Amino acid sequence: MQSVDVVVIGAGFAGLVASRELGRAGFEVVTLEARDRIGGRTWTDHRLGHDLELGANWIHWVQPHVWAEATRYGREIVRSPAAEEAYWRGADGTPRKGDLAEFMALIDEGQQLVVDDVREAMPRGTEPTTGRITQLDALSLQDRFDTLDLNPEARAANESVWVGHVNAPLDQVGLSSALRWVAATGGHWQLMHEASATFRVVDGMRGFTDRIAADVPGEIRLNTAVVSVTQHENGDNTGTHVIVETADGERIRARRVISTLPVNAISGISFDPPLPAAWQRQHAETVASQGTKVWIRAAGHLPRFFAYASQHDPISVLKAEFYCSDERGDSTILVGFGPDHTRIDLDDLAGIQATVDACRPGVTVVEATAHDWMTDPLARTTWMTHRPGQLTRDLAELQQPAGAVHFATTDNANLWGGFIDGAIESGLREARRVTEALAPR
């Protein structure tokens, strides 16, 4: 049986950063990744004639942990194309065409009203459970919208904007998700919009995670699924050790384990003793995110645009991202987001065409691609958004180690939970805790 200081389960941003920090601190670390690639819920893949981010996409300099890593590894950013045209749902339910300034004027009041109390609800973005959020956390985003006196056109646009952010039906996602991300940008919703969907990494997330992985001193094993994590008392009364068993029957003894699985997917591993109550409770409920991110190749070079339908449409947000020219001719690559992953069938191009027509008329759909993170057994979620009540009830407990088992995931980060930044924050936090626990050798 192999013996190491630490086993890290998962080679996404959280796992890679934790493994790097612990390895560089002198500990023997092995990182076990069930997929055939690193990156977790970031995945750069060549599809539709272009390198596309099937998972997490954008970063920003107001996200301190990911920006520090980008600086460390010389990762540059590029702005997604500025829109030349804007489309949104008119009062009669049909698409309207305008420009960016008109759309921003349409949503300005509603966006502000949704988060107007953010500075009292969450005075500090790094402390998302402190403040009046303890009284507000039972509310959904839909509850907040239902209190606002917006005309139908402004309401449809504002609701669609938030579907793009929270990736779920608004009546199932907590108001806390909107408040915490705006709190992270000092209370400015405009900056939150920019931070979450504007600047992408040159060479993609694959190039980013490859750089971190190259800096990990220990071994990273791909195609190695963990099936059980069992804690045992040492026979000499010196504490606890952990036995990690893989799907192929290998057993590894470790002094500490860091799990990076998302809340929704944590039951893929058997833990003994069982997981803490917060993990079991939130896993049973699932977090709110349940949407889709779909890439679409459209015929011809279209004007740069963004389009918003309604929160009830299969695609609520659609944007033109790339131009391509190859043997198939000129095309435009679009990215769309919707609240329910079950409502997009990639084999039904006619259905996708109808959905696109509802957002932005005049587009000819050629093909589409996506990765369904909701049915991916190692994810079972897109990016984390809480259901009403989950944040203040569970976050503190989700962050705590359970004996010799630690948990590092964007799902239990403080500042940018649900983002790459949150994954890195959690990896750094648990690497520090493990280092402090194991330092007296």
Descriptive overview:
Strands 1, 2, 10, 11, 12, 13, 14 and 20 form an eight-stranded mixed beta sheet that branches. The two termini are 21 Å apart. The chain is of the alpha/beta class. Helices cover 32% and strands 24% of the residues.
Give the secondary structure arrangement, pairings included.
Blueprint: E1 2-9, H1 13-24, E2 29-32, E3 44-47, E4 50-53, E5 58-59, H2 64-72, E6 77-79, E7 85-89, E8 95-98, H3 100-114, H4 118-121, H5 133-136, H6 141-146, H7 152-166, H8 175-184, H9 189-197, E9 199-201, H10 204-214, E10 219-221, E11 226-233, E12 240-246, E13 251-259, E14 270-272, H11 277-285, E15 292-299, E16 305-308, E17 317-326, E18 329-338, H12 349-359, E19 365-370, H13 390-398, E20 405-407, H14 420-438
Parallel strand pairs: 1-2, 1-13, 2-10, 7-16, 11-14, 13-20
Antiparallel strand pairs: 3-4, 5-9, 6-9, 7-8, 11-12, 12-13, 15-18, 15-19, 16-17, 17-18
Q: Helix fraction?
A: 25-40%
**How many strands, which pairing sense, and closed or not: the largest β-sheet?**
8 strands, mixed
* Rg on CA atoms, Å: 22 Å
Query: How large is the share of residues in beta strands?
Result: 15-25%
Low-confidence stretches: none
Shape: globular
What is the number of helical segments per DSSP (H or I, 4+ residues)? 14
